[in-house]
Amino acid sequence: MRTLLYTGKGGVGKTSLASATALASAKLEHRTIAISTDGAHSLGDALLVPLGPDPVEIKPNLYGQEVDVLREMELHWKEVYGYLSALLASQGVEEITAREAVVFPGMELITALLLLQRYQREGNWDVVVMDTAPTADTLRLLSFPDVLQWYFDHFLKLQRHVLKVARPTVGRMMRTPLPSDRFFDTLEDLYTRFKDVRKLLSDSAHTSVRLVVNPQRMVINETRRAYTYLNLFDIPVEMVVVNRVLPPSARGDFLERERREQQVNLQAIQESFGELPQRQVPYYPEEVLGEEKLLRLSHDVFGDSDPTTIFARSRPIRFFARGDRRYVRLELPFAERETLDVSARGDTLFVKVGWYKRSLTLPVAYASLPVARATFENGVLLVEFEPEPAAEGSRAHP
Ligand SMILES: Nc1ncnc2c1ncn2[C@@H]1O[C@H](COP(=O)(O)OP(=O)(O)OP(=O)(O)O)[C@@H](O)[C@H]1O
Ligand SMILES: [Mg+2]
Fold it and tell me: Of 110, 132, 354, 366, which has the fewest CB atoms closer than 10 Å, so is most exposed?
């Protein structure tokens, strides 16, 4: 099963690209499903077909589905959902509000990941195209499997054990409900499934994230952060699609000015994602709705090649730590070693190797650490950061 995940800032064209890709994939007779993980579903609007929480057949080899978190939770996470809403209700949150409050922002993505894992197991699809909500912080939820694993290893096993002993006495005295054994069973099941999701997400032979940007400064900045976090969580980013590029035929003072600005920003895209394959899509004079226009979009992006092809499989950026030092490893195979210049300012790493210029947003854990040294050998740049200064007052008390 091939999974393609389109992500990017609000309004850049994720839904259009996801539906275009799905349509073109179905046309090549891949059994394809497009899944919307954006609570404000618009996948059906782009395809001009009403979709729902279950797969809907759109045309031969093409299905569409819009994830409904509440429904999925009721169906598959019943115990967790029930317990959390009871817990909130016991703290004075109105019952009906509590049921909604359990669904935190970005949960659609998590729900969709579990769906993905199910589809992978069942094996009925060749291609899954995911249309996600705007990046911002929801992307960090891709680390959810890791976080859940941590909780499970450090906390939940212990908690379950303690509760087994304490429930008969404590349960009667407190107003706060205690989680049942079934709650822990559900969590354990989720944990196992998330371990599969984790593997699936990092498997560049099957999964790719495609970043959608517009040639605009703010869009680029947000997408750089997304790219950094995807790299940090070892999720393969395969391509950057630059949407809404003004064609040279766009005339008039106003458009000329915008086009000049776009040229500057296209250069910034090059500096931000230079190692990724890049595709450009023109700014069309109308919305991209319905099969015909979507297929034209797909053709403008992929030409005659299969849009489900893995266009790049390498991992050009890695963040890692050794001892108290943090490192960034960047593969820059085309750069020539002349004067190497590396510096960090705030959360940005600036790199110059000969003619090659690159700037990269650093993860929060790196921000404001000075660069200790940088080496460039065999096309690989390794940047080492100074260790974090020891926090004031962190010395142990005698
Ligand atoms: N290249 C383009 N030229 C003209 N219009 C476009 C282009 N790409 C997308 N659009 C239009 O822009 C609007 C927003 O696109 P789309 O819904 O695909 O963005 P999105 O990234 O999914 O937005 P959201 O973040 O809200 O989910 C739609 O009306 C779409 O038809
Ligand atoms: Mg959308």
Answer: 354
